[in-house]
Design goal:
The protein has 359 residues and is an alpha/beta fold. The chain has helices at residues 11-22, 53-64, 74-90, 97-116, 154-158, 169-178, 200-208, and strands at residues 2-6, 26-33, 68-72, 121-123, 128-131, 134-137, 160-161, 213-216, 222-226, 250-255, 260-264, 271-280, 291-296, 303-311, 314-323, 331-336, 339-350. The protein is built from seven helices and 17 strands. Strands 12-15-14-13-16-17 form a six-stranded antiparallel barrel. Strands 3-2-1-4-7 form a five-stranded parallel β-sheet, with helices on both faces. A four-stranded mixed β-sheet has the order 9-8-11-10, with no helix packed on it.
Length: 359
């Protein structure tokens, strides 16, 4: 097969490309240039989207012995990931930019271009398996990335290749060292690549302003003030600066229209009904009858037993046990055991005894 290997400059994508080439595929490496102004993105050898990564990816391609190119995807990345990130926070939701990048850049824009150029598949260094055309959790549970790929369509999964799903991260690093890849010991990336200093609140304030507003409890009593509701997320406890509040308070909701943040005890975060929009089914046909499965609600988060089904254009999820800190804007990814069934973007949560009757 003709395979386009997406090479971020990190150890995972380098070993994935090497394995694809060793398997006999006709492999071409490509690095995605995602910033219009590289100096505005963070620096340092972190393995995703830094200004040094293109050079690391090129050196890895040279060692592997495959052609290498750089594709300018800065406009697409700014539109689909950065602007979406800002818009979601402005609307009181909590986005996952890495998930959006996988969906809109690596497995939409890149895959579309790859297919148009005659490639059969795109290979990436994600820690996930593909079995019988379906996404399955990695054997390395600590590094599993099936959640951030749960937004992919069945067609996108069909043209994807994940060479690393059957090994651990330690094994990947050891293999990179054996292959003479200089990125063998390169640290993993954990931060948001387009926020150079890691200050998400400062980044959002620069884009959206810092209008002061009230922090209230569930009764409506004003407990304090903030400098931008968009800098908070559901479940947040640190940074509230309530001073004299006698008990620990958590962010329960964000109302961008009136710039109000509501806080309360952890018990008030408990929800057992979740509604999501834009359901995507990569591992099965749409589930239209209530079906028992499991759901993951954030990257590396806890897995919950649930009953789920698609109702019109929404995904309805009833949790077997309540969850806390579930934020609108995140993805709910459904599983059958270790196999991804589908996903949706969370739009609403409730306690079932408080929820409006279905229908």
């Amino acid at each position: 097969m003709r395979v386009l290997a997406a090479m971020s400059g990190g150890v995972d994508s380098a070993v994935a490309a090497a394995r694809a080439a060793e398997a006999g595929h006709d492999v071409t490496g490509v690095h995605l240039a995602l910033s219009k102004n590289p100096q505005s993105y963070r620096t340092g050898a972190r393995g995703c989207c830094t200004v040094e990564d293109s050079r690391d990816a090129r050196r890895a391609a040279d060692v592997i012995g495959i052609p290498f190119y750089v594709w300018d995807m800065a406009e697409e990345f700014d539109r689909e990931v950065v602007q979406d990130f800002v818009a979601e926070y402005s609307a009181g939701r909590t986005p996952n930019p890495c998930l959006r990048c996988n969906e809109k850049i690596k497995f939409e824009a890149v895959l579309d271009r790859a297919i148009a150029l005659g490639f059969d598949a795109v290979a990436t260094g994600h820690h996930v398996r593909k079995i019988d055309g379906r996404l399955v959790r990695s054997v390395d549970a600590d590094k599993d990335q099936s959640y951030v790929l749960g937004v992919l369509t069945r067609e996108q999964v069909a043209h994807a290749m994940f060479p690393l799903g059957d090994c651990t991260k330690d094994e990947v690093r050891a293999e990179a060292d054996r292959r003479g890849l200089s990125v063998a010991d390169k640290p993993d990336s954990h931060d948001i690549c387009f926020i150079a200093d890691g200050d998400t609140a400062g980044f959002l304030n620069n884009r959206l302003g810092g209008e002061p507003g009230p922090i209230k409890d569930e009764s409506g009593e004003v407990l304090g003030t903030h400098h931008g509701a968009h800098t908070f997320t559901v479940g947040q406890r640190k940074g509230l600066n309530l001073g004299g509040a006698p008990d620990r308070r958590y962010v329960l909701s964000i109302e961008p229209v009136n710039n109000t943040v509501t806080v309360g005890p952890r018990s008030s975060l408990r929800v057992d009904e979740i509604v999501g929009q834009r359901p995507v089914w990569s591992g099965c046909d749409p589930i239209i009858e209530p079906t028992s499965c499991t759901v993951q609600l954030r990257a590396h988060g806890e897995v919950y037993g649930c009953t789920a089904w698609q109702r019109d254009d929404e995904l309805v999820i009833h949790l077997d046990e309540p969850a806390t800190g579930v934020a609108a804007g995140q993805a709910a990814v459904l599983y059958d055991g270790d196999t991804v069934l589908g996903s949706a973007t969370i739009t609403a949560t409730a306690r079932r005894e408080e929820a409006a009757p279905a229908g």
